[in-house]
Amino acid sequence: MRLLVTGGAGYVGSVVAAQLVEAGHEVTVLDDLSTGHADAVPDGARFVQGSISDASAALAGVDAVLHFAAKSLVGESVEKPGLYWANNLGGTLALLHAMREQGVRRIVFSSTAATYGEPERSPIQESDPTRPTNPYGASKLAVDTTLTAYAGLHGLGAVSLRYFNVAGAYGRFRERHTVETHLIPNVLKVATGERESVSVFGTDYPTPDGTCLRDYIHVSDLARAHLLALDTIIEGEHKIYNLGNGTGFSVQEVISVCREVTGHEIPAVVGPRRAGDPAVLVASSEKIQRELGWKPERTSLREIVSDAWEGLSGR
Predict the structure, then answer these.
(1) Mean pLDDT over each residue of the chain, to the nearest integer
(2) Euclidean distance between CA atoms 52 and 31, whole angstroms
(3) Does the pTM of the predicted model rise above 0.85?
(4) Considering 11, 84, 116, 136, which one is annotated as catalytic?
(5) 116 tagged catalytic
(6) What phi, psi does 57 have (nearest 5°)?
(7) Is there a smaller number of Cβ atoms within 10 Å at the N or the C end of the chain?
(8) pLDDT tens column, 65-74
């Protein structure tokens, strides 16, 4: 197939683009490089530097779109909500309009489990209420709502994939954020000397070791789910699937495994809880396993951390 990957110079988008090329697809990457990296575009893919707000030319002759381009910092979204609504929802609306003009009727959307907000239960299922607690999650939910409307009104075929924390590396494709908010790379940066210590926010949660429990998924497993979703799109339908590891890992577990993998002490500074941090956030992937046959293969925290460490340090 001829495919357009928006945001394909970013972390997850580049891994998906690489797997698509490996699968024999004709891939075009569209990225404005505001947070992506030109050298992350995989060999064999065509690169177009530009915005999703002006994607019409890049869509010519395309069979389907895999959409990753988005602003994704929760804290920044609270400080600059207009930026997130304009980019994540406004940009996607422009993309969908261009898709209609070019006759492209299939899309896989990289959504987020932040659409659920603070859940009533764990693991979170697709049928659970969506109550995002920040503009980032709200803007992504708005895109999901839009895709449902476009499926009903215009016959668009769409799949949204919702997930929490992505980690690990896929060959040379790794996590590289100017502003890093994810736990595993921040812990590993202590080992590389880029940070002095890692912060632990609260040790009195109702979890086995008192620290927050979170869902982590290996980036290669996540990318594979996007390829499966692409093959199962039905025009006129919008399907939503959660992706998860199947279990959660605590902050303390992550730090301990990082210490083992790197051989570094990695000092941890314990502080009070952060407002709004739920004790447990784990997504159920039962639906996608049942309907699409997807199952995470790299579920070991040590394997996830080892791959991330190799990608970060060049080891």
Answers:
(1) 94
(2) 8
(3) yes
(4) 136
(5) no
(6) -65, -40
(7) C
(8) 999 999 988 8
